[in-house]
Amino acid sequence: MSGPIKPVNQKAWWLVLPVILCVAFSAIIPLMTVVNYSVQDIISPERRVFVGVEWFMEVLRDEDLHEALFRQIQYSLSVLLIEVPLGITLALCMPAHGWKSSAVLVVVALSLLIPWNVVGTIWQIFGRADIGLLGYTLERMGVEYSYTGNATHAWITVLVMDVWHWTPLVALLAFAGLRSIPDAYYQAAQIDGASRIAVFRYIQLPKLRGVLVIAVLLRFMDSFMIYTEPFVLTGGGPGNATTFLSQYLTQKAVGQFDLGPAAAFSLIYFLIILLFSFVLYNWMQSVGTADAQEKSHG
């Protein structure tokens, strides 16, 4: 016979209560406020009219939103295609042990310590032809470079700025993943006479999959919400060349003070990020599962 059932101590839940309160005040309550604004027409502080999904339909018909969304997707995909391979390459080139490893880690991480608005200011000065090294050098080379007057130049400058700022994050994550691989794998590969490419393909890359999922999701979500750097550097111009979704939302909420459409757009923006992150995560997981099945059958 089993003994008497001991009562379960539920006092541990009190330790979770502060976290629940912080999440409620920082996320749930503001989200519910946005939902409330998205279904109302705020005529005055005392007068509000329920409009249902009218603001959502208006936002979805907005052609400027469609252009900003396409521009944002193009930018985020460009960031991932450049920063992830570049970060992995940088991690593979970094020394693994000794004081050189520590020194390189500090140097690589320096750009991550710079605030976003300062990054935009640095590149704003860096790209000027009169006082900036980049602008002056390109001008001396005969290249007519202007990130304020040429849409292509502005786009490339914002992209290069983001690569410079955030590639070290991918490199540090990949470096940590590489250091977690046991030496026994490399010893076995050396005995088998495997090349560096084979070691990377069959040992390092599979072991990096976990940290790469984190790196891809972090960089995608952050690039999809980029605001400060292009706002400081180009102000969204020239024209709307570097006006991304976050800047479009700010213009609608603060510049035009259309709280209803801005709230509806905020919810759509939130769902878009969730959808893309979900698709990216499941795609990377399915690729990993397919590779594991292929190795097991082989």
Model description:
This protein has 298 residues and is mostly helical. The chain has 2 domains: 14-52, no CATH class; 63-291, MetI-like fold. The chain is 73% helix and 3% strand. The protein has 12 helices and 2 strands; from the N terminus they run H-E-E-H-H-H-H-H-H-H-H-H-H-H. It has helices spanning 13-38, 54-60, 63-93, 98-109, 116-126, 133-140, 151-179, 183-192, 196-224, 228-233, 245-255, 259-297; strands at residues 40-44, 47-50. The protein has a two-stranded antiparallel sheet. A hairpin with a 2-residue loop joins strand 1 and strand 2. Helix 3 runs antiparallel to helix 9 (196-224). The longest helix is centred in the C-terminal third of the chain and has 39 residues, at 259-297. The protein is globular.
Q: Architecture of the largest domain, according to CATH? A: Orthogonal Bundle
Backbone structural class:
mainly alpha
Considering the protein shown, what is the CATH homologous superfamily of the largest domain? MetI-like
Question: What is the C-alpha radius of gyration, as a whole number of Å?
Answer: 25 Å
Approximate strand percentage: under 5%
Distinct helical segment count: 12
Examine the coordinates and then state which fold CATH places here, giving the name of the CATH topology of the largest domain: MetI-like fold
Largest sheet: 2 strands, antiparallel
Number of strands: 2
**What is the average of the pLDDT values?**
85
**Poorly predicted parts:** none
Q: How widely separated are the two ends?
A: 51 Å
Instruction: Output the CATH class name of the largest domain.
Output: Mainly Alpha
SSE string, helices as H and strands as E: HEEHHHHHHHHHHH
